[in-house]
Amino acid sequence: MEIALTQVILDGLRLGLLGLKDITIIVLPLMVAIELAKDSGLMERVTSKCRPLAGLLQVSKEAVLPLVVGLAIGFSYGSGVIISASKEGNLSMKDRYAIAVFLSICHSIFEDTLLLVAIGASFPWMLGSRLLLAFLATIFVTRVLFASKLDEEMSSPVGSN
Amino acid sequence: MITKETWINGLRNGIDTIWELAKVIIPLTIVIAVLKETGYLELLAKWMEPLMQVLGLPGEAALALVVGYFVNIYSAIAVILALSLTVKQVTIVSVMIAICHGLFLESAITKRTGIKAWPLALMRLGISILAGLGVNWLY
Q1: What number is the average pLDDT over the span A75-81?
Q2: For tag attachment on chain B, is the N or C end more exposed, with fewer CB atoms within 10 Å?
Q3: Does the pLDDT value for residue A39 go beyond 60?
Q4: B31-45 burial, b for 16+ CB within 10 Å, e for fewer?
Q5: In a domain, A9, yes or no
Q6: Is B114–A86 a contact, with Cβ atoms under 8 angstroms apart?
Q7: Which residues contact B8 (CB under 8 A, 6 or more apart)?
């Protein structure tokens, strides 16, 4: 009985370590790549390429930077950008809801996706389904929920309410 | 500007992430191995089977979903590692967890942006389940 339990624990440990090995191979280079992308100004360049998305999602141009940052790097980092952008008063309520809806469904696209791919999930399915659903949900929010009056009533910078 | 700091920060973030993962994954894979051996996992699996079947998942996958929804992706990864799932099943669970995870922590972050957190959390949960059904159907 004693020996059997030890064996079970060792088996569990082995599974965990093997999984960690696969994850390490992906996460270590990825984190360096993300840091390089941040410091090289790549985010700003990608953001200017992504400006046309503002039209599709019906958000202001100021909303694109937090979207791109959150999508690539992460929710907390992205909302950091939202919070500072909100304080500057550039983001309407509609923008903020659009960003929050999009990023809550789809953020840290590289890290989250690759972690789960490392343990066996299919990469195209992971990436495709999240992006598609984030776009659809955001378009629904901006074009249906915030279609008309709601936007005027609810748009005010964070500081004033 | 890319400096030596950039590389050091990247490596440090990577090591931090792996360490955070290790702290969750190693104990959890051991706990689940014990639950499996003692038959408790099977009990849960039997109980959850009717629900999970709709998603094309075995009953024990419910554990990965619950842990992922309410704790975080890291602990869901540990559960997935410990279960023996097919590629399709791992993909279904992964898509669902990627869309909706760490509800408590991430709702707290959402609130700081001046947005109501609970409708967003409900929406994520709903979209996650729809996505699971969709992947099961289309994969």
Answers
A1: 66
A2: N
A3: yes
A4: ebbbbbbeeebeeeb
A5: no
A6: yes
A7: none
The domain containing residue A140 runs over which residues? 27-160
Residue A55 forms part of a structural domain: yes
pLDDT for the residue numbered A150: 52
- From chain B, the residues in CB contact with A125 under 8 A are 91, 95, 135, 139
Residue A148: pLDDT band (50, 70, 90) is: low
Say if the Cβ atoms of A125 and B91 lie within 8 Å. yes
Q: Residue ranges of chain B with pLDDT lower than 50? A: none
Has the ipTM of the complex gone over 0.90?
Answer: no
Q: Which of A30, A31, A104 sits opposite B120 (nearest CB)?
A: A104
Location of structure tokens 């014990």: B34
CB contact under 8 A, A101 and B97: no
Q: What's chain B's Rg over C-alpha atoms?
A: 17
Token couple for A141: 């929010």
* 8 A C-beta contact, residue B77 and residue B63: no
Distance CA(B132)–CA(B121), nearest Å, equals 17
